[in-house]
Specification:
The protein is built from 3 helices and 5 strands. With about 140 residues, the protein is an alpha+beta fold. The structure holds 2-acetamido-2-deoxy-beta-D-glucopyranose (NAG) (2 copies).
C-alpha cells in the first residue's frame, strides 16, 4: 500500500513537471557588431519576450528551430518587433531557438529593452554564416 502511494505520488510529480527553467546565462561572444539604435526608447519587456518567439512564423512551445528556411523573418508583439536577415546572400535562416534566445540575451545585456542592431553568430548555412537582427519600436 505504502509503495503504491509512493509510486502514485512519483507518477503525479512527473506528470506535472514544469518545463525547463529559462536559460538566463549571457555569452557576449554569441553576437558581434551591436549598436543600441535608440537608447532613449524603452520597449515593453513582455512584448519583447513574445516577439522573440514570433520569428519564422512562430517558434513557441515544442518548436526548437526556425521553420521554412527564410532569408528574412520578423516577430512582433505590441511595441516590439524583431527583424532578421541573413548576412550572406544565398544562405537561409535555420537558427535554433536556443541560439536565437542566446543572441537576444547577449544584445539585451548591452542595450537593455531599447532598440538595437546586432549580428547573431551562426544561425545560417549550418551555422557557418550569421544572421543580422534588429529590435525596433513599431
Ligand atoms: C555593423 O553594423 C552596421 C550597421 O548595421 C553595418 O553597416 C556594418 O557593415 C557592420 N559591420 C560589420 C563588420 O559587420
Ligand atoms: C544557455 O545559454 C548559454 C549562452 O547563450 C549557452 O552557451 C548554453 O549552451 C545554454 N544552455 C542551455 C542548457 O541551453
Amino acid at each position: 500500500m505504502l509503495l503504491h502511494i509512493f509510486s502514485s505520488v512519483l507518477f503525479i510529480a512527473q506528470a506535472i513537471a514544469l518545463p525547463q527553467p529559462a536559460n538566463t546565462s549571457v555569452n557576449p561572444n554569441a553576437i558581434t557588431n551591436t549598436t543600441c539604435t535608440a537608447p532613449g526608447v524603452t520597449l515593453n519587456s513582455h512584448n519583447i519576450n513574445v516577439a522573440i518567439l514570433g520569428i519564422c512564423g512562430g517558434i513557441a512551445g515544442k518548436i526548437e528551430q526556425c521553420q521554412g528556411a527564410p532569408t528574412t523573418t520578423s516577430g512582433a508583439s505590441g511595441d516590439a518587433r524583431f527583424n532578421l536577415q541573413v548576412e550572406t546572400p544565398g544562405t537561409t535562416i535555420i537558427v535554433t531557438k536556443g541560439r536565437w534566445e542566446g543572441c537576444v540575451r547577449a544584445a539585451r545585456a548591452v542595450c537593455g529593452d531599447s532598440p538595437f542592431s546586432s549580428t547573431c553568430i551562426g544561425g545560417a548555412n549550418d551555422n557557418k554564416d550569421n544572421v543580422l537582427f534588429q529590435l525596433v519600436k513599431q
